[in-house]
Amino acid sequence: MHIGDQMNDSLIKMLILYCLHRIDRQRTIFSIFHLLKGKKSAQTIQDAHFFQLTNLFHTFTDLTRTEFEELVLEMEKQGYLEGFPHQSFRLTSDGYKHMELFFEKQPIPMSLNGWKFHQVTELFWERLSLAVQVVSHLKSWDSKFIPIQRKKELHSWLKGFIQRTGLNREELGVKLYEELVDCLEEYKENDPSLLVLRLTGYQIIGLTTRQAAEKMNVDNDTYQLRFIALIHYMLENIQENPTDYPILRLFVTEDNEIFPLTHSAKKTYDLLKKGFFIEEIARIRRLKSNTIEDHIVEISLNSSSFDISSFVSTEKQKLILDAIMASNSKQLKQIRQFIPDANYFEIRLVLTRVGEKI
Amino acid sequence: MKLEDVLQKHFNYSSFRIGQKEIISSILGGNHTIAMLPTGTGKSLCYQLPGYLLKGKIVIVSPLLSLMQDQVEQMMMNGEKRVIAFNSFLSHEEKYQALHQLRKYKFIFLSPEMLRSDQVINKLKEIGIDLFVIDEAHCISQWGYDFRPDYNKLGEIRERLGSPLTLALTATATPEVKDDIITSLKIEEWEEYIYSVDRPNISLVVENIRTYQEKTKRMVELITSLEGPGIIYFSSKKLSEQMASLIKEIGFSKIAAYHGGLEQETRILIQQQFIQGQLDVICATSAFGMGINKDNIRYVIHFHMPLQLESYLQEIGRAGRDGKQSLALLLYSPGDEHLPNQLIEGELPGDAQIDWLYDWLIDHREALYNLSLFESEIRRISGFTDNQWRMVEAFLQFNDGEQIEKTIDQLKKFINERMLIKLTKIQDMYRWTQLTDCRRKKILNYFNEEKTIEMRNCCDCCGVDYSGFYSFITKEPSIKIESSFHWKNHLAEILLSERKT
């Protein structure tokens, strides 16, 4: 093996080989793409579990299909994999050697747990980075700063967060510091600097992902994977020892808003939170799918923070909203005339977000 | 209360900058007002301050989303919470909510496309407008370098809103642009406040360089020797990235690229790092700079010439807001004047695209009733860019499907006219780079002004002494990982250390 070869062995390529090795021609090459991208289809989720690749689920969300295809083509040229009909590929022995050597030197982080935490990873970072910035400024008695996170819902979450801690400016900084140190100190896989460098505070602006990668002397993909793994470590740690982290815990638990739900809808909600699909819940509860859908509409009506995008994609939501506007009506039938490829459930869900406001 | 007291109370300044008081007094006297103030001289104060004296709402129409966002953030940072940006950054849900609660806000920023909605118009009428502000008013004019078809409808919209008291603001307006603003807004009587576009503390320099390679070399030389902070403008995202990496590789670390293709979090961080002084140089596209409040920028370099003198002036105007001597330097190589042509072609839809659209519309007349539902399909096949689509959409939205052919002809005619205007602007820009007599005089003439004062270091044609622009400190080579960095210390510095301003 030449050193020159190894230079071309990027993390993403080696991860594709790693997955390919696991699925061993039982699936098309694109199942790997869906997995890394985090596609929420029954097939992809089943694959992730079946081939024990749940840790890598949703870890490369920015990857495009074209990029993926190019990577595969390149590795075919390099002789790492060999193609068969129907987009099926097999790892060559050379490919296997490269992959093994690569991960011997830099193993996939143990704490990585894409499937378990993919829904909260980004949110946790957004909340953490904003909270640290705000606490740092509070401490320095400076209220004039540009928040590094722009989303409105994060800002309103933050207000509630500070109230719920019940701490004053001084205590807040100290406690947050102590909990973060406590949470990160035992982490041995990588240097917690990779997270801390990115934090913004009073007169200290955090680094961007690329700047942090440069500083840590690794490529962007490696940095990203380690960063995600570190967040997952924190999430696991907080979940396992909630009493140790009274503040950090607030980053992951929802507002504790107790909203009124029928008993039956409550049960559905609990199952949804565990990650079951509508059909599965229907089977478990021996109810019709329609009924479960009714519950979901009820939940959405009662909790504005309930995320409906897993039932209706955001693009489709937008189209349905346009259709609602165009039809100038709340009657499902009329709305549907403007958007034939939406079903009633989807339209009802979107309607819960429009409410009586118009 | 005196205006100065209001200024002190709400903005913490003790005196007005040039023009501000006159413009504000004009508005408060109930006059429609057209104001031209150069970049970086505090235009936004002209509508913010009246907000504290007028009872009703201040509605500000602003064409650039990023600029709007920056202004809103800036105002919120200064403690004004009753401000909202009503634009496509909001999710649908947020939009409905905002519309419902519009009454709560004092300062309402709107993008022109939001004013297409009857609901928005009706709501605005209901809550009452005391001042209708059109920011970047040159966008109204066909002759403006940044004409927005949406802005064309503002006169009509203004009437529908009951012709409220109006303030049109711009930094750069040639006489024909100004006339266009007045005509399209349908204002009959108005006060005019025009201030010089001249920024005497900025030296204007053009360097003619033979080849691209030499230009790159020269740029590196400049960055490593000029006193920062500075901005270098590039014509493409890719180039800004490449050059930032190149300069980093030679060991100059306090530099980053900034362009619209970066993630929002990254963009915010880089802006803030620059303002805070963690970065010394930004390799930028024209997306950078609006709303950046940084007084001590010492130089602005253009790696390529911009598309017109108006944007050139805007971009160099970011230097020297503290009044200290600053440098605007444009690097020109033969052939650079052809480069913008490609950029323009990307901005305007091509004939083939329009012909395809015509055929498609003939088969899908129903699409005209709700174009937005078909936007993704049309754009997927035709490949319209954001800008191109905005233009096409503005033309089609009032068509009822009866006169498609006529509309398409108008659209084509419009595109040709735009093309001609833009090419003329490039020529003007190019000719300016090739001058042998005073550059300042020429750029002032372009805006119908005369050069009235003489100054040291005016421009390279009049003679510039560079020595004042060079840095005396040797720039330190970058260190990959500072050995002193430890995450716990860093965290302690953020969350524990006592630093009071």
TrEMBL record, chain B:
<dbReference type="InterPro" id="IPR011545">
    <property type="entry name" value="DEAD/DEAH_box_helicase_dom"/>
</dbReference>
<keyword id="KW-0378">Hydrolase</keyword>
<keyword id="KW-0347">Helicase</keyword>
<protein>
    <recommendedName>
        <fullName>ATP-dependent DNA helicase RecQ</fullName>
    </recommendedName>
</protein>
<dbReference type="InterPro" id="IPR014001">
    <property type="entry name" value="Helicase_ATP-bd"/>
</dbReference>
<dbReference type="Pfam" id="PF16124">
    <property type="entry name" value="RecQ_Zn_bind"/>
</dbReference>
<dbReference type="InterPro" id="IPR027417">
    <property type="entry name" value="P-loop_NTPase"/>
</dbReference>
<dbReference type="InterPro" id="IPR001650">
    <property type="entry name" value="Helicase_C-like"/>
</dbReference>
<dbReference type="InterPro" id="IPR032284">
    <property type="entry name" value="RecQ_Zn-bd"/>
</dbReference>
<keyword id="KW-0547">Nucleotide-binding</keyword>
<dbReference type="InterPro" id="IPR004589">
    <property type="entry name" value="DNA_helicase_ATP-dep_RecQ"/>
</dbReference>
<feature type="domain" description="Helicase C-terminal">
    <location>
        <begin position="218"/>
        <end position="365"/>
    </location>
</feature>
<dbReference type="Pfam" id="PF00271">
    <property type="entry name" value="Helicase_C"/>
</dbReference>
<dbReference type="GO" id="GO:0004386">
    <property type="term" value="F:helicase activity"/>
</dbReference>
<keyword id="KW-0067">ATP-binding</keyword>
<feature type="domain" description="Helicase ATP-binding">
    <location>
        <begin position="24"/>
        <end position="191"/>
    </location>
</feature>
<dbReference type="Pfam" id="PF00270">
    <property type="entry name" value="DEAD"/>
</dbReference>
